[in-house]
TrEMBL record:
<dbReference type="InterPro" id="IPR012308">
    <property type="entry name" value="DNA_ligase_ATP-dep_N"/>
</dbReference>
<dbReference type="GO" id="GO:0032807">
    <property type="term" value="C:DNA ligase IV complex"/>
</dbReference>
<keyword id="KW-0436">Ligase</keyword>
<feature type="domain" description="DNA ligase ATP-dependent N-terminal">
    <location>
        <begin position="4"/>
        <end position="191"/>
    </location>
</feature>
<dbReference type="Pfam" id="PF04675">
    <property type="entry name" value="DNA_ligase_A_N"/>
</dbReference>
<dbReference type="GO" id="GO:0005524">
    <property type="term" value="F:ATP binding"/>
</dbReference>
<dbReference type="InterPro" id="IPR036599">
    <property type="entry name" value="DNA_ligase_N_sf"/>
</dbReference>
<dbReference type="InterPro" id="IPR029710">
    <property type="entry name" value="LIG4"/>
</dbReference>
<dbReference type="GO" id="GO:0003677">
    <property type="term" value="F:DNA binding"/>
</dbReference>
<dbReference type="GO" id="GO:0003910">
    <property type="term" value="F:DNA ligase (ATP) activity"/>
</dbReference>
<dbReference type="GO" id="GO:0006303">
    <property type="term" value="P:double-strand break repair via nonhomologous end joining"/>
</dbReference>
<dbReference type="GO" id="GO:0006310">
    <property type="term" value="P:DNA recombination"/>
</dbReference>
<dbReference type="GO" id="GO:0006297">
    <property type="term" value="P:nucleotide-excision repair, DNA gap filling"/>
</dbReference>
<protein>
    <recommendedName>
        <fullName>DNA ligase ATP-dependent N-terminal domain-containing protein</fullName>
    </recommendedName>
</protein>
């Protein structure tokens, strides 16, 4: 059975209220709220395999770096304005977030519009998390800056997608429209929504699995297989012997903190740490699958996107001038972003 988006809004509202009460410094409060919410809805979340993946994509939109929607606040406000048939005065109300010091974002303005003139929404016609996730995936599939896997998953005209997004805004109430807007813009502004807390509230083993297999779908599949093969459960300390990296799925990277000196590094974290010098270049993760022949190499960027095609051009420029490796400031002009050279116009020849 699909999972209602209203339930997600309940959790987000609670976390926002807790954060506004300046209790965000106490992580245990947020942890209890999230754990209690998952305990309440666990049966519904576990009904279908797709529900959990769609739920995590909704709660943690900024972790979906493979999805780029090509929609910012100005373009989204136009979509909402057309969908709700706003006149000049009401459209001006929608743009109040642009005023310096207003203390509002676009989501607040959308909620204000729908509070004054609500949609004719029936309780029987609730918007589902899976429905929102599917729409966001189609939006991302039409953006060239999304990952190759997402772009191959679905395709139709961008105009059709935006019309569907507008229709969605006519099916939600003010509260749902507020959080839908923030999810699309990947700006929930909730510091308590830490992925480890969210994953751990679903299953104590999922945070470790997600670090090894940085994909909601793959990690959840591994978790289901683990549950099936070990019905009595397996401790998190033993997962290292069971969960292995998978070729083609990015391995999560460790947390990086910037340090100004060794003394500063020691003060940043009280436990054992490792330090390394920041080199000029780009972080990437390389997967080599010899069974794929000429397509055996797959390269993931720091953000987690499959950047194999973008790096293919640069790789041909690494060796030049009698086989010497060129410095990064020379080859960076050949490093593309979804086929587009960004920020290289003023580079030296």
């Amino acid at each position: 059975m699909p999972f209602s988006f209203a339930h997600v809004c309940d959790l987000l509202d609670q976390l926002q209220q807790q954060q506004q009460q300046q209790q965000s410094a106490d992580g245990n409060v947020a942890r209890r709220i999230i754990a209690s919410w998952f305990a309440k809805h666990r049966h519904a979340i576990n009904q279908t395999p797709a529900t959990a993946a769609a739920l995590f994509s909704t709660l943690l939109p900024d972790t979906r770096t493979d999805r780029v929607y090509g929609i910012q606040a100005p373009s989204l406000q136009r979509i909402v304005g057309r969908a709700l048939c706003l006149g000049i005065s009401r459209f001006a109300h929608l743009r109040r977030y642009e005023n310096p010091g207003s203390g509002e974002d676009l989501a607040d303005c959308v909620a204000g519009i729908l509070t004054e003139t609500p949609n004719a929404v029936s309780k029987l016609d609730q918007v589902m998390v899976e429905e929102i996730d599917a729409l966001l995936n189609t939006l991302a599939a039409n953006c060239r800056f999304s990952s190759h896997t997402v772009r191959q998953s679905y395709w139709n005209t961008g105009c059709e997608n935006k019309e569907t997004l507008g229709e969605l805004y006519r099916q939600v109430d003010a509260r749902e429209a507020k959080w839908l807007t923030r999810i699309i813009l990947k700006q929930t502004h909730l510091t308590a929504l830490d992925p480890n807390i969210v994953f751990g509230s679903y299953d104590a083993r999922l945070p470790f699995i997600a670090r090894v297999q940085e994909s909601f779908e793959v990690a959840l599949t591994s978790l289901r297989e683990l549950r099936a093969s070990n019905p009595l459960g397996i401790g998190t300390q033993n997962l290292v012997h069971v969960i292995k990296p998978i070729l083609g799925t990015k391995v999560g990277r460790q947390t990086w903190l910037k340090g100004r000196s060794i003394k500063h590094c020691i003060g940043v974290h009280p436990k054992r740490i490792s330090c390394e010098k920041k080199m000029d270049g780009e972080y990437c993760q390389v997967h080599v699958d010899l069974s794929k022949g000429s397509r055996s190499v797959q390269i993931f960027s720091k953000s987690g996107k499959d950047s194999t095609q973008d790096r293919a051009v640069a790789s041909r420029r690494f060796l030049k001038d009698e086989g010497r490796i060129l410095p990064f400031h020379k080859i960076r002009k050949y490093v593309l972003r979804s086929g587009v050279p960004l920020g290289t116009q003023k580079d030296s020849p």
